[in-house]
Amino acid sequence: MRRFNLILLAVATVFLIWLLLEIGWSALARHLKQIGWWWPLLLLPYGVVNWLEALAWEFLLSTKSTHARVVFLFWIRLGGEALNQLTPTASLGGEPYKASRLQAVGLPFEEATASVVIHKAMKVLSLFLYILIGLMSAPLLLPEVSSHIYALTLAAAGLGAAILGFIIVSLNAPATRTLKLLKRLKLCPKFLKDKEEDLARLDARLASFYRSHPGKSGAAFLLLFLAWLVHGAEVYLIFWLLGHPIGWGSSLCLDALTMIFTSIGFFIPGSLGFQEGGNILLALGFHLGAALGAAFSIVRRIREAFWMGLGLIVTARY
Q1: Range name among 66-70, 138-142, 187-191 with the lowest pLDDT average
Q2: 119 neighbors 220 (Cβ within 8 angstroms)
């Protein structure tokens, strides 16, 4: 699977280079020069996004640890997301890291792991709501997209089905069932057998959390959805600094539809190629032009590189 992901990454890289060559480096440079000395401002929205997601994560923890506070969770989440983006693990490579860091500061295995799984489930569920709002507003903000709305809706429905499947599996003893299957196939490693009781407690926590803590669940979901709105506000800021401002509604709509392409490419590190192709296609649909869409993608990649770099420093430290 890892080799397959790396092959796809190589193909996506070649496609991306070809795409940028077709657009032309001079056109891209002209747009990027518009930002001038305002580059640091572009780093702020994602910092707010990460803080909101860390705050939502804190709501999902029952154990009151002096270590597992928002600042700590902010940095640990940043490191985990860097691993998710940079490793060929279908955006899941950083989740064990997050759980292990919580265990390292004294949280029980089942609570640390359950909080990571629940946070992931709520994040993708809030993303689905964000995409649905974007799809519903697209015909109003962009009449030209009507001819493509069926394909976008189909892709969103596929994403919704995958999210629903993930949540259903997480509520039906996934750890215990996987352990039994591995035992039946005689492929169960000893360290998993030794954790059988811990895995059973993890399943029980996953199954009961939403019923036992509806207030915390609701607050975490709202914070995660607010984080997506800030993510959309970043689009407004980028186009404003590029010298081609667009409305708030168009910014949120464009970002929500971009997330469809990014989600489809989750199995490639960083959704390389899918994200850029989606940005350029949507920029054309919004009458912004391919060069401006590519410049927007490059600016977002620079922002990603900054925060992922900080995340890798965190993981190196630990």
Answers
A1: 66-70
A2: yes
Which residues constitute the domain of residue 115?
Answer: 2-16+46-317
Domains identified in the chain, total number: 1
Confidence band, pLDDT 50/70/90 cuts, at residue 5: low
Please report whether residue 22 resides in a domain: no
Would 195 be classed as within a structural domain?
yes
Q: The dihedral of CA 141, 143, 144, 147: what is its sign? A: positive
Q: Is 143 exposed, middle or buried (0-12, 13-18, 19+ CB in 10 A)?
A: exposed
Return the number of other C-beta atoms located less than 10 Å from residue 244's C-beta: 16
| Contacting residues for 276 by C-beta, under 8 A, at least 6 apart | 16, 19, 294, 297
The pLDDT > 70 percentage for the chain reads 89
Q: Assess whether pLDDT exceeds 70 at residue 270.
A: yes
**Does the pLDDT of residue 66 top 80, yes or no?**
no
pTM of the entire predicted model: 0.89
In this prediction, residue 64 carries a pLDDT of 67
In the block, residue with structure tokens 């001038």: 36
Residue 163, Cβ neighbours under 10 Å: how many?
Answer: 17
Identify residue 62 by its one-letter amino acid code. Answer: S
Query: How does the average pLDDT of the chain come out, rounded?
Result: 85
Residue 151 has pLDDT above 90, yes or no: no
Question: Ramachandran region of residue 140, left (φ > 0), alpha (ψ -120 to 50) or beta?
Answer: alpha
Q: How far is residue 92's CA from residue 73's CA, in Å, rounded to a whole number?
A: 17
CA neighbor of 110 nearest in space, from 195, 189, 178, 172:
195
CB 270 within 8 A of CB 6: no
Estimate to the nearest angstrom the gap between the alpha carbon of 297 and the chain centroid: 16
